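Title: Comparing notes on inverse folding

I've been comparing how different people in this forum approach sequence design from structure. To keep things fair, I'm posting one structure and asking everyone to reply with a full sequence. Here's the target:
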């Protein structure tokens, strides 16, 4: 069973996608929490706690999306990139293309706001249309087949209102 298609589920997964950056509280940033091992652990824990493989997969994808976006972002503080293949290697990896601009954590500098405002604007310009597309496709699919509904009849392209050809013919008599 997959997570419920509702706002609470989306909020939980959005929060999960932020968890890897809790390592900002540690001396090592973008380290093991940004590796495939952490993705597997997070997915396994979610699966065990919820007892639903769909939740395990969703949490793993949410966690992994953070690593993917960090890998694609500009990083100005060495070591550059993310420890993407932890625990297999402690090397840092970074995409050769940088889609997302760098962010600044030097709040005492005047360019802090300009830097981070630019980063937020670029991220929204890229991710909002993508999110809107995914949500609209998700909604149209949820509308066409509700939970527990039988699969649509194979009556043909014109049969979209849930009435099978046989029932329609019977009713016409
Ligand atoms: Zn991160």
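Reply #1:
Here's my take.
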């Amino acid at each position: 069973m997959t997570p419920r298609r509702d706002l609470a589920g989306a909020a939980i997964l959005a929060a999960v996608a932020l968890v890897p950056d809790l390592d900002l509280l540690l001396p090592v940033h973008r380290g093991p929490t940004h590796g495939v091992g952490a993705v597997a652990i997070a997915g396994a824990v979610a699966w065990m706690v919820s007892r639903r493989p769909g939740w395990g997969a969703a949490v793993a994808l949410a966690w992994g999306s953070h690593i993917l976006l960090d890998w694609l972002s500009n990083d100005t503080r060495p070591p550059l990139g993310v420890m993407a293949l932890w625990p297999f290697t402690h090397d840092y990896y970074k995409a050769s293309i940088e889609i997302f601009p760098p962010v600044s954590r030097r709040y005492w500098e005047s360019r802090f706001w300009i830097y981070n405002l630019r980063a937020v604007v670029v991220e929204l310009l890229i991710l909002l249309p993508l999110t809107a597309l995914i949500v609209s496709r998700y909604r149209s699919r949820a509308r066409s087949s509700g939970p527990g509904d039988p699969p649509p009849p194979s009556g043909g392209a014109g049969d979209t209102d849930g009435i099978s050809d046989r029932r329609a013919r019977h009713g016409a008599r």
